[in-house]
Amino acid sequence: MLEASKMVDRTVDAMSGPRGKKPKKALSGRNIMIYGILLMVSLYYILPLWVMVMTSLKGMPEIRMGNIFAPPVEITFEPWVKAWSSACTGLNCDGLSRGFWNSVQILIPSVFLSIAIASVNGYALVNWKFKGSELFFTILIFGSFIPYQIMLYPIVIMLRELGLYGKLGGLVLVHSVFGMPILTLLFRNYFTSVPEELFKAARVDGAGFWGIYFRIMLPMSLPIFVVAVILQVTGIWNDFLFGVVFTKPSIYPMTVQLNNIVNSVQGVKEYNVNMAATMLTGLVPLVIYFISGKLFVRGIAAGAVKG
Amino acid sequence: MASKPLSARLTRNLNAKIAALPMIITTLVVFLGGTIWSVVYSFTGSKLLPKLKWVGLKQYDRLWSNSRWEISIENLFWYGIFALVLTIAIGFLLAVLLDQKIRFEDTFRTILLYPFALSFIVTGLVWQWLLNPEMGIQHIVRSMGWESFTFDPLYNPDLVLIGLLMAGLWQGTGFVMCIMLAGLRGIDEDIWKAARVDGIPAWKTYLRVVIPMMRPVFITTLVIVAAGIIKLYDLVVAMTSGGPGNASQVPAMYVYDYLFQAQNLGQGLAASTMMLLSVLIVLIPWAYLEFGGKKHA
């Protein structure tokens, strides 16, 4: 596990660029090939985003006549307005805004609760080991590989017993449970790297479990909290399965509502509105991705060394 | 310790135990309890509500004689093989290209990784639009003069997996590239120097030295990607809803439909147990290699 934390750090170091000097000759045949391939691959990766944005800015007549790759002749923001405020799912025509606010309401408590639980948990696993703690941790990590499908129905029963089935609170709980393996691993690996002397000194000064957590561990590990927030915000925002299974139509998260809008069989297909809606849903994780940069990579690396 | 009374042992380190309570409940009740519950009830004839009425292996007999399940398994198998091999191969090649001390490495990496931040729903819907036969790629190629060009994977049962693969690869290869890049950067620079001194060409060094050295990275990536593929669900829902016909059904969809739509609990649980089994087939050899083999290393 120590190796795992080292690998996370190494990943981040590695992302800060290659070692050694930059090459001097820019236009060798080898370089042309490398850049050529990379440019072509990049094009393949950018194209869907480009098409999505362009389609969302065109009117329907232009879409029917034209080329999906071409920029709009006449830019219109009508599809965005419609997607946000009046696109229909079934009989409801109040747009994606409802799904957006549902997702926000799901997101904030889920992120807070899952990180609170996992950080304290990771801290207990590193500094306050008790009999069986490692065993629970191992089961937790292996549990993250079990297909969710096998746990769906038992969780429905548990939530029903708690009176939380079909409610926001239930979904928050589910996100906290399934976020626990990866987040606990993340915090556990980070806290392992905090010098033990610090912990011992605080113990000598009479600080207890919570005192050390709030006064030493928490302030010292703000970067890893940021990584955890990035990981959770994108993960929970992008969730579809839990939203479908554990909530009801009036509180469906944005992804579920988006799918219902775009894949609804009724009415004429408005591709521009559909793409605007898709773009709106993708915007939150995209913004986080472009702002966070290397921290996002760090979150991924933590996911990769789980187990 | 053993001589102390039980209550003293329990209260020792009490705060830590309280803090770990969510983890203990999650592992014991949700992960272990939930899994065992599902496996047990997969041997019952439960319909709308769970009932302990034993029917032996009947649910599994019915499962494997259901053509929809058969299609689901076949789809998952072929999609899985291609997705696994291609994401890892492409991810590795891209990582190698980015590792050539190039300029704008950050820009390229940002571009290759951004789809990974998007959900499968968003991915599926964008690709559904790109592959729309009347307005998407097929239409563009035809309007450029190649009138007979046909590429409509989402409407062709024989090609639908290719459509899913295009979207799946677009979303997932950036992730593998990132992991592989980290693995490449972890390899000692001296190995490259030694290879150069011996006059070994770069491709040969990758093949004979670097890839074998990165074995653990490959295995970890393999397990993560494979575990993700078995859960494949959102992408199919968004892109094809399992169609055309039943051509792109996957096991996770079967489970969902039987648990929550068809109200045939026993059947859905039997299907989910098969999913668990397939993950264990991937996971157990890996766990054995990773943790069992450590003593010899």
From TrEMBL, chain B:
Compartments where found: Cell membrane
Superkingdom as given in the UniProt entry: Bacteria
Membrane topology: Multi-pass membrane protein
CDD domains xref list: TM_PBP2 (cd06261)
Transmembrane stretches, start-end: 21-43, 76-98, 110-130, 159-184, 205-230, 269-289
Family matches, as PROSITE patterns: ABC_TM1
Record keywords: Cell membrane, Membrane, Transmembrane, Transmembrane helix, Transport
Domain ABC transmembrane type-1 intervals: 73-286
InterPro entries (UniProt xref): ABC_transporter_permease (IPR051393), MetI-like (IPR000515), MetI-like_sf (IPR035906)
Family: Belongs to the binding-protein-dependent transport system permease family.
Protein name: Sugar ABC transporter permease
Taxonomic path: Bacteria, Pseudomonadati, Pseudomonadota, Alphaproteobacteria, Rhodobacterales
